[in-house]
Amino acid sequence: MNILNQYVKTLLEAEYPQTFDWNYFNSLSKFKDRFFYAQSHLSPSGEPGSSRRVFVIDDDAVLKLAINKKGVTQNKRESDSTIQQKYPHVVTKTFRHDPNYLWVEAERVRPLTYNDLDEFKEKTGFHLGWFAHLCLVGLQIFQDFDGEWPEGSEKVKQDFESSIFAQELVKMMVELGQIGDISRISSYGITKSEKIKLLDYGINNEIYNTLYKKMQKTSDDSKSRNT
Predict the structure, then answer these.
(1) What is the pLDDT of residue 9?
(2) Are residues 123 and 141 in the same domain?
(3) Burial code of 193-217, b = ≥16 C-beta within 10 A, e = fewer?
(4) How much is the pLDDT for 214?
(5) Does residue 214 form part of some domain?
């Protein structure tokens, strides 16, 4: 472990409440036990999700607990060091994770809402709708036109190439596939250092097809039985 990683690890451990017994937490084998322990020592962060529960560690970090296989898979993807290194302007940092991805320590961000649309424009230089348009056009350019911009697209090209965030996000979409709805403000958050980041990028086409669609089929089957 290099000095920087050791410092980050020590810093994060020091910021947990003194009553939080890390060794005991790691010894818990059931989600409900981990959840109740975290709940009794840490504050929740945001609304409960369908795959994970998130707790505040301190001003810089949160603890994400998987509650099902989907959450485990999302934790695994968000802990991927390659993704962290390739898309640093898009994704949040992760610090540590469980070997089986039952939990992950990640950079704390404040989720954006429709009240923050002006802040999104201030930080990115674009209104959300135009930013999403830039990314979708950029995606089409790389997927359908081999990166060659057609005539008449000078304005879009200029704005796209002026944004490292947009370029990196499109690269991520090209290489990783489905990453969520980039046209929704709730897909973004802001870090302590005032950087806009993509939230919950732990979903890709494989996760969506194998887990989300299975859940939808179960729901549809249930509805049909009740009609």
Answers:
(1) 46
(2) yes
(3) eebbbbbbbbbbeebeeebeeeeee
(4) 46
(5) no
- Residue 154 CA neighbour count, 13 Å, CB half: 2
Scanning the chain, the segments in alpha helix (DSSP H) are 3-15, 22-27, 31-41, 69-78, 81-86, 117-124, 128-144, 154-161, 164-176, 205-207, 213-225
Tens-place pLDDT, residues 78-110: 999 999 999 999 999 999 999 999 999 999 999
Centre a 10 Å sphere on the Cβ of residue 40 and count the other Cβ atoms it contains: 9
**22 φ, ψ (degrees, to nearest 5):** -65, -40
| 17 and 96 assigned to the same domain | yes
**Chain segment 133-188, per-residue pLDDT in tens:** 999 999 989 888 888 898 888 999 999 999 999 999 999 988 887 667 888 999 89
User: Collapsing DSSP states into helix, strand and coil, what is residue 54?
Assistant: strand
Domain range for 72 is 3-108
Note whether residue 220 is domain-resident: no
* Residue 221 falls inside a structural domain: no
Burial of 30 (0-12, 13-18, 19+ CB in 10 A): exposed
Q: What is the pLDDT of residue 54?
A: 93
pTM score, whole prediction: 0.76
Q: How many domains does the chain have?
A: 2
Amino acid at 9: K
Helix, strand, coil abundance in the chain, percent, nearest 5: 50, 15, 35
